[in-house]
Amino acid sequence: MIVLRKLVYYVAVTLDGFIAAEDGTFDGFIFEGDHMAGINAHYPETLPTQLREPFGLTDAPNQHFDTVLMGRHTYQVPGGLASPYAHLRQFVVSTQVTDTPSDVEVIRSDVAGRVRALKAEDGLDIWLCGGGKLAAELLPEIDKMLLKIHPVVFGRGIPLFDGKADIRKFQRTDAQLFESGVSFMTYERS
């Protein structure tokens, strides 16, 4: 029996459904509290490479993901790095990004086809890091969502799914509540 890797949309989101402010920043999210230790212990690979050492995770093995998929705006976040997740196989979906280091591959077309090919490879799951437009485009390929729901409201910004998407049903399979007010919710495709 062949087991395909999953495309997992793992992202922080506000109570009103935004993954970033209108300008693409995310400093309105809560970065201190008990949720940070819990999430970092279970998903160390989701910290940018430069933050792994300060958090004591330099040599932490990748537990869930060995590949990350980012939209252009996620990749080019203000103050971002040319190779933000050097400990993962990195892909950027864009027709505009041209100058990436050798460890960051740019996907320019047939994104869903490329994702299906990645899912057929051996390895850990594929982390869909963002953004909202890419998530809407890839909704038919998303197998699981890990949502870090922060108790904040942005009012406007970049939505969790930014664009036309067909209705897809997901089932909640796990829920963790933290004293910080952050909820970590797991949803799998029904």
TrEMBL record:
<dbReference type="Pfam" id="PF01872">
    <property type="entry name" value="RibD_C"/>
</dbReference>
<protein>
    <submittedName>
        <fullName>Deaminase</fullName>
    </submittedName>
</protein>
<feature type="domain" description="Bacterial bifunctional deaminase-reductase C-terminal">
    <location>
        <begin position="6"/>
        <end position="182"/>
    </location>
</feature>
<dbReference type="InterPro" id="IPR050765">
    <property type="entry name" value="Riboflavin_Biosynth_HTPR"/>
</dbReference>
<dbReference type="InterPro" id="IPR002734">
    <property type="entry name" value="RibDG_C"/>
</dbReference>
<dbReference type="InterPro" id="IPR024072">
    <property type="entry name" value="DHFR-like_dom_sf"/>
</dbReference>
